[in-house]
Design brief:
Blueprint: E1 2-6, H1 15-26, E2 30-35, H2 40-45, E3 49-52, H3 61-67, H4 73-82, H5 86-96, E4 102-105, H6 111-119, E5 123-127, H7 152-165, H8 171-179, E6 200-202, E7 219-221, E8 237-240, E9 243-246, H9 260-267, E10 273-276, H10 288-298, E11 303-306, E12 322-325, H11 330-333, E13 339-342, H12 346-354, E14 359-361, H13 368-378, E15 381-383, H14 389-402, H15 404-418, H16 422-443
Parallel strand pairs: 1-2, 1-4, 2-3, 4-5, 5-6, 6-7, 10-11, 10-13, 11-12, 13-14, 14-15
Antiparallel strand pairs: 8-9, 8-12
């Protein structure tokens, strides 16, 4: 089978597809990933074929500051970046699916519904977190939806008004469809319009929430898809104390190897606190890592800061007890942490759970507040507002470290999530959908 995955956004909007793609390749199928140029190396390192899909993501700090704005970020990325480029996205994806047996897309791949409709390629959509189902039964806790929480009828009304309030986001897409003779938009592309009528893959653990009664018809929850390796690119910086080293280790698929300097730091004392902001929030870190180092010292704890960008190393109060690196494979580092402090991305939460470690969550934007709320409900985390992090970091971390029930709960949840087979179940579903559609087309 020839499978095409379509993704736009941060690395967190791509990793589940990379993991499912690895499973498909091991089974002898061909996988191509259509996404923007910044993800080329991640796709190729996973052993998958890369296909460009515009628009490309600027690398400047101003772009990421706007993208990670908790209130205006969603409008910026959808209305100002992705929707106006819909013609380019459709052209790129149309070329990519020319020989495909199935197309699988995630929320921000706005071209996928159009390409599926225009070409007839079998299409399945995916969501990586519960918030993207926009359920009135299990409503998302998002900055732009402060009034959900009531009965499903009330929540349904709030979600309806929210869709009406962002109708202008979809205007470029509506114009494109009209200009190319396609039917008018039946649903907003950021809401129900993202979901394929042939079926939706919910690629996350039921620990975050089982499928609500109002999930799209044909939705399959696969279980969590855990990242199995992370590429440490040449030129990334590792800093311990006052010593800078350049990381040269290339991590092969499934082999999470840590640089020797990191191993020495981890072995030199008790388990450290690990602080990270993932791939997107690290661009808007501000004082997060400086405050984190100070909080660790206040508690008498060692700390490992995964700062994401070399610029975030500047001015950090490092020493023998506080080390920093731009990035390291979470699956190798998290099991050796005393606790993990991060932004609340669904993939980072899942890897923290898989490591059996409790968390302090500091949501920045987008789905992170909802993910954090679910982790708190699960009994494995505390949540700290970003604007109060400097003042509340140390007491929140101390409370998590002292919470024996939370540690026990994290260990139990870790065993459960490690037993899930999300990538394999998703691969089965994609192949079944592709084969089924092929039989229907042959019959017709």
């Amino acid at each position: 089978m020839r499978v095409v995955f379509a993704s736009h956004g941060s690395l967190g909007d791509l990793v589940p597809f990379l993991e499912v793609g690895k499973v498909l390749v091991r089974r002898g199928h061909h996988v191509r990933v259509a996404t923007h140029a910044a993800h080329w190396e991640a796709v190729r390192s996973a052993g998958l074929d890369f296909a460009p899909m515009r628009p490309d993501r600027p690398a400047d700090a101003a772009f990421h500051a706007r993208f990670m704005d908790p209130l205006r970020g969603p409008a910026f990325i959808f209305r100002d970046v992705l929707a106006p480029a819909i013609g380019d996205s459709v052209a790129d994806l149309t070329a990519t699916v020319a020989d495909a047996d199935v197309l699988v897309s995630v929320t921000l791949a706005l071209a996928a519904p159009i390409v599926a409709e225009a070409t007839g390629v079998p299409w399945r959509s995916a969501v990586f977190q519960p918030a993207m189902l926009w359920s009135a039964v299990d409503p998302p806790r998002l900055p732009l939806l402060p009034f959900v929480r009531g009965a499903p009828g009330w929540n349904r009304r709030v979600l309806h008004y929210a869709q009406e309030g962002v109708a202008d986001w979809a205007l470029p897409i509506a114009r494109y469809r009209a200009a190319h003779g396609l039917a008018p938009l039946a649903a907003h592309p950021a809401f129900a319009g993202q979901h394929a009528p042939g079926g939706v893959l919910a690629l996350y653990s039921p620990l975050f929430g089982t499928l609500p009664a109002d999930a799209p018809p044909g939705t399959l929850q696969t279980g969590q898809i855990l990242q199995t390796s992370q590429v440490l690119q040449t030129g990334q910086v590792l800093q311990t104390g006052n010593v800078l080293q350049t990381g040269q280790e290339a991590l092969e698929t499934g082999a999470a190897v840590l640089p020797a300097a990191v191993e020495r730091f981890l072995d030199a004392g008790p388990p450290p606190l690990v602080f990270t902001l993932g791939s997107a929030s690290a661009h808007a870190a501000r004082g997060f890592f400086r405050d984190s180092a100070r909080a660790a010292r206040r508690l008498g704890m060692r700390a490992l800061l995964l700062v994401g960008r070399e610029e975030n190393l500047a001015g950090l109060p490092l020493g023998d007890d506080v080390a920093a690196a731009t990035t390291l494979p979470y699956e190798a580092v998290f099991p050796r942490a005393a606790a993990i402090v991060h932004q609340g991305g669904i993939g980072t939460i899942a890897l923290s759970l898989a490591a059996g470690r409790p968390m302090v969550l500091v949501p920045f934007a987008h789905d992170q507040p909802d993910n954090a709320a679910r982790a708190v409900r699960l009994g494995v985390a505390r949540c700290v507002p970003r604007r109060l992090y400097g003042a509340l970091a140390a007491p929140a971390i101390a409370a998590v470290l002292a919470d024996e029930a939370m540690h026990a709960r994290a260990a139990a949840v870790g065993a459960a999530i490690r037993a899930e087979r999300g990538a394999e179940i998703a691969a089965d579903a994609i192949l079944a959908a592709s084969a089924g559609m092929a039989k229907v087309q042959e019959t017709s």
